[in-house]
Design goal:
The protein is mainly α and about 180 residues long. The protein folds into 2 domains: about 90 residues, Rna Polymerase Sigma Factor, Chain: A (Orthogonal Bundle); about 80 residues, Arc Repressor Mutant, subunit A, CATH 1.10.10. Helix content is about 80%, strand content about 0%. It is built from 8 helices and no strands.
């Protein structure tokens, strides 16, 4: 029987025995369908390719440990699980960055958490838009984009002291404007 005519169950048997040709056929048979599925969920070519790379790498590395009964179902469930893990990590990273930003802005020991990040983001954007353009720009570059004082100074063609002044000014404004935000939540 030719490799191309083999059903999934036979390809899996060959894969379990370490047959790289069977792995290649599985990859070629399912990659474009899985890619569409993953990319539809994530909307990112790079993230989709990374997830599929991880999926197929895992299949090859664990080929002798896996007993796959239905290859198609196994691939789609594995892809879905990797998508969910990717999204959880992305959400956790986003929440972490928000927490880190707050910590830097307030530099206090308050352990109160933000209950509604949309309210926080709306408030932050409103306050930044009410600041002078230079102060808001310096704050965004320093605290959100994490650009060093020296690089901000070079990019905006202002002294490092001026950058530090704008950072301090923005932090004071934010601390004052966010005071009631915490007591309200």
């Amino acid at each position: 029987m030719d490799y191309l005519d083999k059903p999934d169950s036979k390809l899996c048997e060959s894969l379990f025995k370490g047959d790289s040709k069977a792995f290649e056929l599985i990859y070629n048979k399912y990659f474009k369908y899985l890619y569409r599925y993953v990319n539809h969920s994530l909307g990112s070519k790079e993230d989709s390719e990374e997830i599929l790379h991880d999926l197929f790498l895992s299949i090859w590395q664990n080929r002798s440990n896996k007993k796959i009964l239905d290859l198609r179902v196994y691939l789609y469930v594995s892809a879905r699980n990797l998508i969910n893990r990717h999204l959880r990590n992305k959400i956790n990273f986003s929440k972490y960055r928000e927490f880190e930003l707050l910590h830097k802005v307030f530099s206090s020991n308050e352990s109160e958490s933000i209950t509604n990040s949309n309210d926080f983001n709306n408030r932050l954007n409103f306050i930044l838009n009410s600041m002078s353009e230079k102060t808001a720009t310096v704050f965004r570059m320093s605290k959100i984009e994490e650009i060093s004082v020296k690089k901000i100074s070079e990019q905006l063609d202002i002294s490092e002291k001026a950058v530090e002044y704008h950072i301090t000014k923005s932090q004071k404004i934010l601390k004052e404007k966010f005071k009631d935000f915490y007591s309200a939540n």
